[in-house]
Amino acid sequence: MASTCVVGLQWGDEAKGKIVDLLCDQHDTVVRYQGGANAGHTVVVDAITYKLSLIPTGILRPGIACVIGNGVVIHPPALLREVETLSKQGVDFGDRLHVSDRAHVIMPWHLAEERLTEESASAADHLGTTRRGIGPCYRDKVGRVHGVRVGDLYHPRQFREHLERIVEFKNRLLTAMLPDFEPLDANAVADEYLDYAERLRPYVCDATSWLHNAVQSNRRLLFEGAQGSLLDIDHGSYPYVTSSNSSAAGIAAGSGIPTRHIDRWIGIVKAYTTRVGGGPFPTELHDEIGERIRRIGREYGTVTGRPRRCGWFDSVAARYSARVSGSTEIAVMLLDVLSGLKEVRVAVAYEDENGKAVNDMPGQLANLERCRPVFETMPGWDDDLTGVRSWSDLPEAARNYVKFLGKQIGVPVSIVSVGPERSQTIVLKEGDGK
Ligand code: GDP
Ligand code: IMO
Ligand code: MG
Question: Which terminal CB of the chain, N or C, has fewer other CB atoms within 10 Å?
């Protein structure tokens, strides 16, 4: 054992990348198991900012192997661009990146299909996705008939035949539905993707078998979640979710590694809540406090640049997702952003429009939309936290706030983050935070 998972407990962007980077010291391999280039994980090391999207955050640490598992959906040009950008920033890939031949491939029609729904005349169809083709690619994976996997790119004759059938189908659909859609040429798409395949060849392997060997050799794996548990296709605020199991539920399916090998289950939360795109958000702030959090926390999407919606910490949601993701410890991130507020609030329960208590996270959108948060208000703190490096040096009000979050979630807090830099992190010791 000695493997760990790092999973977001909110609607994404909880600063998972920072914690994965921090924990690389104690692991040998970082594994992405779901999602794709919809993820944007920002890590700041010695004032240099790195943005990771498809590539596991471990690539920033020399000697750490990185696996893109079968559960990830890969847009080859996006992956090649990311390799190039990181290489230009001085990241040495060596032979550290391993891409599963079972992972599905995002094809040009997936991007067009997403445009179709996201730009449809009916606002009810808009989810506010990242438009990276994620949903349509997973749809074809599950539908089976039109799926393309990385391994298929290395069988050119069969790949061309498969593409002919798919392109014929997609052209008929998309020309009928999208007035400006230029029909695709199967051969041209095949040429383009076979070229990507050659460039990706050094990385592609049977990643499941690679990971099984790693486990056999007692390598310590670090599973890096993308998105957050509330965006999980099964357990999140459906339909305003992503198309994969972005809670810890996705780990075994998306990597081929049974979760009995994991002994640390770290749930990541911001000290408040954010969300990008559409969907219910009971504690959302529409006032100057929300704007202040957005400004100080620099809450703009890494992938799309969209302003993130901001609100108070939601314990009902975090308690639920900590259970779904089996969290055994919590990292509370961006605590510094709340400095300077006279009071801070935490939703401790919901109630419906009749004032009736709702104690569990509703599974139905209509019920969640009816929920109003019940807040507990606590004193804020003025001090700048970005230079604090120990639990005892945090102001008492900030310590009480963190303790309160841990109690509300029902899981102990083990890490507090007070700035984007690797060093701006407080690892709690026995007795702290109690
Ligand atoms: P991820 O997708 O979960 O990895 O999170 P993102 O990278 O999308 O968003 C987190 C943002 O917060 C990034 O810009 C980080 O550099 C930044 N960040 C991480 N930890 C802290 C912190 O403790 N304080 C502040 N102010 N920023 C942080
Ligand atoms: P990281 O890994 C925040 C959101 C989108 C949209 C919904 C569906 O950086 O935390 P999709 O393109 O996945 O079909 O969009 O999910 N979303 C994220 N929000 N962080 C992410 O990733 C996200 N990935 C997708 O904004 O609401
Ligand atoms: Mg992000």
Answer: C
